[in-house]
Write a structure and sequence with these properties.
Helices cover about 80% and strands about 0% of the residues. By secondary structure, it is mainly α. The protein has one domain: Formate dehydrogenase/DMSO reductase fold.
Length: about 300
């Protein structure tokens, strides 16, 4: 059954990059640069870490080893992102980047430094949890991941307006909670009774997250796009429109699951494998939306 539980993660990673590829196709030639690839991976991993960190709020517990492994991937993705960004800023090949140039770009890019420090602190938490008797609540992992998500989401063109960082930050945190916690459930919850405990708690709070995502996304999009024709005439507008369509489909699927999957889980009529499959459907759509969001953040309005 653990093999089945890993399927959402594999599909999620693939479809996240697929969403990023779609954003490139829609926005070219003004689409995201190559740095968006490691940045998207870093975003996806930080979102899952946030979800794992807040699992206790829905009566579930994550694996410390999984948290440590993902934190390592997060740190590596951030470093690669900084390395590729160094090459782009210097106008040189990635293999020609020097350690000095890399250090200068990394230390001058506050969001990447915040994400790097957050990832390293989570690695430190994992070491303490696995190798010592020190007990630090796993919610700390969720808080550190949230700081990383927030720091990277409010940079770029989000800062072009006074309310941009607030709107984009709230949008990113609500999306990270929704996506990350569902992914964490699929990775961590076992048995019918486990899903019967955790899914209702998640489902009762999800509408609030969806409401924040929809409201802040609409307002932020209207701020960035000058007029409605720009939704189809500009690369940024086309990616934004695609993200809205995917989000609308996702909300529809989530509403269907709320009417069918949730009651069956509450009555212990759904197996663990069936719950993971249902979660996987949502996670695939969520990953596509995350990939589009990563591409959107790297595309000029």
């Amino acid at each position: 059954m653990r093999v089945v539980a890993g399927v959402p993660v594999l599909f999620g990673a693939t479809t996240l990059l697929g969403g990023l590829a779609v954003s490139w196709l829609l926005a070219r030639p003004a689409g995201p640069d190559m740095v968006a690839v490691p940045a998207a991976v870093a975003l996806g991993v930080s979102v899952v870490l946030l979800g794992l960190g807040v699992l206790p709020t829905v009566d579930a517990a994550p694996s410390s080893r999984v948290i440590g492994a993902l934190a390592g991937v997060w740190v590596l993705a951030v470093l690669i992102s900084a390395w590729v960004r160094t090459a782009e800023r210097s106008g040189i090949d990635v293999l020609d980047v020097t350690a000095g140039d890399f250090g200068n770009v990394l230390t001058s890019d506050a969001p990447e430094m915040v994400a790097l420090v957050a990832g390293l602190l989570i690695l430190g938490w994992t070491v303490l949890d696995l190798l010592t008797g020190v007990e630090i609540p796993v919610l700390v992992v969720g808080a550190l991941a949230a700081i990383g998500v927030l720091a990277t989401s409010i940079t770029g063109h989000a800062g072009n307006s006074a309310w941009g960082p607030v709107l984009v930050g709230a949008h990113a945190l609500a999306a990270a909670w929704w996506v990350g916690l569902l992914a964490a459930l699929a990775m961590s919850v076992r048995g019918r009774s486990g899903w019967a405990r955790s899914l209702p708690a998640f489902s009762s709070r999800a509408p609030w997250a969806v409401g924040v995502i929809a409201l802040t996304g609409i307002i932020a999009g209207l701020i960035e796009v000058d007029d409605l024709p720009a939704l189809v005439t500009t690369g940024y507008g086309r990616v934004l429109l695609a993200k809205v369509v995917v989000l609308a489909v996702l909300i529809g699927v989530a509403a269907w699951h709320r009417r069918r999957w949730l009651p069956a889980v509450q009555r212990h009529r759904t197996t663990e494998a069936a719950s993971i499959r249902a979660a996987s459907i949502e996670l695939v759509l969520m990953a596509v939306a995350l990939g589009l969001a990563a591409g959107l953040s790297a595309t000029a309005p």
